[in-house]
Specification:
With 441 residues, the protein is of the alpha+beta class. The protein is 36% helix and 27% strand. A hairpin with a 2-residue loop joins β16 and β17.
Amino acid sequence: MEDKFDCIIVGGGIAGLSAAMVLARANMRFLLIERGEFCGSKNVSGGVLWGTDLARLVPEYWEDEDAGFERFINHRRLTFMDEQSSFSVDFKSAHYEEQPYSGVTVLRAKFDNWFSEKVQEAIDASDVADESFLVPNVLVEEILKEDGKVVGIRAGEETFYADCVILAEGINNLLTRQIGLQPAYIPADYVAVGAKEVIRFDRKVLEDRFQLSERSGMSNEFVGYASGGVEGGGFLYTNLDSVSIGIILGMKDLRGKKRTPYDVLNEFKAHPAVTDMLRGGEVLEYAAHAVSMGDLRGLPSEIYADGVMLVGEAANLLLNSGKAIQGMDYAMRSGILAAGTTIEAKAEGDFSAAMLKTYRTLLEESFVLQDMRTFQGAVQVLHSPQMFGTVPNLICDFGRQFFTVDSEPTKKASQMMKDSVKRHSSLWEMIKLGTKAARSL
């Protein structure tokens, strides 16, 4: 066999780059292959990178004038919508302004490219600078196996070998399916469609409209009419001089109701609560793609095997519990843990499944799989029909009553709520749903 790398990473997104950063700092010989022209070139829009792992990988990244993040999140909002109204739970705190930030908005094309430059700096500073590479614009077509063990990859006519392979290929995990860790067909119940736009504003207009200062930012999740009666919800995140706005829709329900993501997104943008936010903006980008639902039943049969580990959305690691959409932080932590396992395996001279099981153990002990297990009930509640119909309609009905002042006797709030429940559901149904939601969260 030809000279081998210690590790080959397939995919230059957040998961793959996080693994590469850890390997570079440990003086490991690795090859990262990205099929785009550069890391981030395939990504449109972005979202919120939650947590503080970025500060572990790039200490004091916020001091970098060219840092790839847009704004830190110090303002959180959850909005329930019916056809004409919205009712928001709003929270803003100076605690979120402390560094390292607990959440930053990113535009992936910009962020991934910046992150790859930081990885290259780590490679250049390592003892094996001439033996580790970030290689873009290459498509990996096949995973090579010998005696049941993954030993490398094939790209075109070229073959490359390594002690282990980290698959960071994203939701379209064809290589993961090729080696049998995920079925060729994943039920539509476990997959969603995300449709996003990036809309540009004059920076001062954006900051005035969303009450932002310097690098502060807001994240807003939407439940109800945002999804146009389809299972799912919406989101809006503020960037430096743009907003990322979009919807996530259950693929099975979308198909069953014969809706298109673009039509639902346009209806969401035309809602009275949203259209005022977007007034005067210029659409820069639009994209639609598949995303994981966060249902544990959609995960691969295993996230490791002889000579291989799965990270990020290649392993369907994502969670939307109603409080936040978490995916990029899961990708980052899984990449860090897979790289750490690779380093340990190299020290032991053992890349068998028995050794790489350490990665699974570490992931189970981390917030990633712990939260995915803890909040599975919340995932099920969030995707129940009541959450994109009955509940937001009921809440907005109550809001209209509560905040309306006219020349008539005013009912007490408790009676207003009872009236809203009667109009849209029943007390018993709301008790059952409320109990289930409380237990889930």
